[in-house]
Amino acid sequence: xxxxxxxxxxxxxxxxxxxxxxxxxxxVLHPRAVRRHGSGQSDFEAQLTGRLVEGVRRxxxxxxxxxxxxxxxxxxxxxxxxMLLRAAYVRPGPHVRIQLDYADxxxxxxxxxxxxxxxxxxxxxxxxxxxxxxxxxVDPFDESFDVDxxxxxxxxxxSEVKRVLLDQTVVSGIGNIYADExxxxxxxxxxxxxxxxxxxxxxxxxxxxxxxMAEAVRAGGTSFDxxxxxxxxxxxxxxxxxxxxxREGRPCPRCGATIRRARFTNRSSFFCPRCQRSPRQAH
DNA sequence: CGCAGGCCCTGGTAGC
DNA sequence: TGCTACCAGGGCCTGC
Length: 283
What we know:
By secondary structure, the protein is α+β, with helices and mostly antiparallel strands. 24% of the residues lie in helices and 20% in strands. The protein is built from 6 helices and 10 strands. The chain has helices at 4-18, 41-48, 147-155, 161-166, 176-186, 199-218; strands at 23-28, 53-59, 62-67, 72-76, 81-86, 96-102, 108-113, 119-123, 260-264, 267-271. The strands form 3 sheets. The protein has a 4-stranded antiparallel β-sheet. A 4-stranded antiparallel β-sheet has the order 2-3-4-8, with helices on one face. The chain has a two-stranded antiparallel ribbon with strand order 9-10. Helix 1 (4-18) packs across helix 6 and helix 3 (147-155) packs across helix 6. It is globular. The structure holds a DNA duplex.
């Protein structure tokens, strides 16, 4: 599941292969992959054909190609999206949704997405920041990230703190895996109301989220299966760095208590019941 | 504006 | 073996 570290790994992997090259042919193989491109599939193909990619940028879980003429090709990988560099002779696999072919002898690019939650679109004038993601907050790795402002924004919300951590308009890039890991590191229960946490605790939490994601970037991201791989099809190896996520029934690496799984907003939360006291136990 | 819940989607697997 | 039910979950949308 691509969160910030996985998207960063992919953006960095793409950069040397796509910047400075001209997209020769665009093939949309599944209409759902361009459902957010307002003016339709053929317009998407027309907009992207012949364009020179000048840069690759990322904010949170989104990445985009900066195109000549000031536009952008925006990409969100959803849950299972991949950007794969493939030699021109490689025929598209079953889940290839969009093919970007080049006229030069370098590799082509396949947007692969089994579960079709991902998408691409062309954003007019989106070079610096595509319009569809102007509501997405900066992520902790952005040079303009403001810790104090983010702490304040988190503490204005009355929802459970994990919900707020996952809200991409508050802080971007954090998904279910790194939210659970950050909460465990900061010893905070996922259901604590955000506005009842002291400023210093929220600051700790953001620090831990940033740290765990930085470690994951160094490991090339987290791969549970072959749904997340880098641009060359290789898995990341941060799974061994996880302390709670996916580890129900195993001992907490810090205190030895048995890690539990809870249903939370229709997804799983993994936590240590001793290190992370629930709101009712907290006082 | 904040908040909570539903929906989109596919492949793998558990259970009968 | 073949069926059904459920699970993974990010972000958009709706209704309050």
